Amino acid sequence: MERIQLSALAHADHPIAAPVGEGTAQRLLHHAIRRPDAHVLDLGCGEGAWLLRALEANPGVTAVGVDVSDEGFDRTRELAARAGVADRLELRRQDVAAYESPRPADVVLSIGAAYAFGGLAPTLAAARRHLAEDGVLVLGDCFWEREPDPAVRAEMESGPQRYADLPTTVSHVVDDGWTPVHGHVSTLAEWDEYEWSWVGSLNRWALDHPGHPDRDQALRRAAAHRETWLGGYRGVLGFVLLVLRPTPAAPAPAGSGPAAPPPAGPTVSRA
Ligand SMILES: C[S@@+](CC[C@H](N)C(=O)[O-])C[C@H]1O[C@@H](n2cnc3c(N)ncnc32)[C@H](O)[C@@H]1O
């Protein structure tokens, strides 16, 4: 019997792998895509749900998604073909750290994937490397809505990322040289929809496949996830999406630049 891909299954009802509702995603893409022929690059694209939405809404847009896992790629390619956008979508299985763009991107997406670069600061640096001069970054990352229990913090920060509160998170981004032109903080309803979809689709599959060798594993994963969420980070961990443009360099204050050349003396014409 074929083994199942638990992660792809967990996202079956909510292909955006973040606590972000459909309307929110559409609105943020609308703010980010500023030209009809924009090229969009998604660093840690998961199943490419953001790219599919960008392509469907904008007939001139092209898109590349990079992810270390290609678990959902087949389904995405199928959906892209059905929507008539497959010729404008490229999905690459690759570590984002090793990815070199053949062309600068007008829009870079990093949504729930900053850990792929080791945290916020290296993600911002990577986005800057891939972006066209007047490009837009859509960054989605976690923050602490309130001080977590030490055990919750240890669990949610077990990877390379460390989270701060919302004002501090946004300040880090601004101090790094970005200007927010739009933003969204996930609501509790968006979190609940995302987490119940995750837990629910695994449980439903397991109940519908009583003889499958992966059934017990799916039930265990769903139960562990539900307990960590409801007993731990629900209402404590937040998620913010920022639509960002590079902050232009400030003009140097008068008198602070390199010494001006001495004024030219009167030209004396010697006959
Ligand atoms: C929480 S998911 C978000 C997916 C997608 N951005 C979305 O919003 O639907 C994070 C994704 O980052 C990918 N990822 C993690 N480390 C990576 C790496 N080093 N290179 C490429 N992708 C990576 C994971 O495989 C996963 O699909």
From TrEMBL:
GO terms for biological process: lipid metabolic process; methylation. Residues 250-271 are annotated as: Disordered. The keyword Lipid metabolism applies. It comes from the Bacteria. GO terms for molecular function: methyltransferase activity. It holds the Pfam family Methyltransf_31. Residues 37-170 form the Methyltransferase domain. Keywords: Lipid metabolism, Methyltransferase, S-adenosyl-L-methionine, Transferase. Belongs to the CFA/CMAS family. This is Class I SAM-dependent methyltransferase. It comes from Saccharothrix syringae.
